[in-house]
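Repro case for the chain-ordering regression, as requested:
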Amino acid sequence: EAQVTQNPRYLITVTGKKLTVTCSQNMNHEYMSWYRQDPGLGLRQIYYSMNVEVTDKGDVPEGYKVSRKEKRNFPLILESPSPNQTSLYFCASSLFWDRETEAFFGQGTRLTVV
Amino acid sequence: DQQVKQNSPSLSVQEGRISILNCDYTNSMFDYFLWYKKYPAEGPTFLISISSIKDKNEDGRFTVFLNKSAKHLSLHIVPSQPGDSAVYFCAASMVGKYIFGTGTRLKVLA
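-- result from build under test --
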């Protein structure tokens, strides 16, 4: 089954404790991206990756890191989480960025930083 | 400054009637525009997209219209069904970057 898998689905952590949210897709997609969803702000792009070893900042990259060492995985790293990073996070992938192709989204990761 | 705006936070429509969801954007460099539907506790799912060189794209009950001079796009759902009740996001893309609107909650009344 074609899917984007995020782990964990729920996470409560403390300020400053490094964490990684994993994202994996099984569709051989070139493009992957991370978003956060906050009430009243919609979805905002954090980072994206056009292909392996190619990543770039989205609208809200501060406090996040990503890596794309292999095509299927695109982890989101919070080196020192803060309470303002409490949010619902989505990973997405699509075949290419520059075509009218649909993006597949993961189920989301609800992160709470206390 | 928000580059993609959905000014209506919510919309209610009777089953069988047309639903029209609107989206405005400010950046004329966007390549593609997309609509996504989101149910609670799920990730967004793709609905329909349109290239900036077109003015209309149709897929079944869903049609997206793009008015470049007005920097406006709209999603028409005809006929609306109760299962269409969800939050709808419009998005604009430019060289890999995606900007989403804040969403419109559609409620289709049976």
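Ordering looks correct now. The mean pLDDT of chain B is 94.
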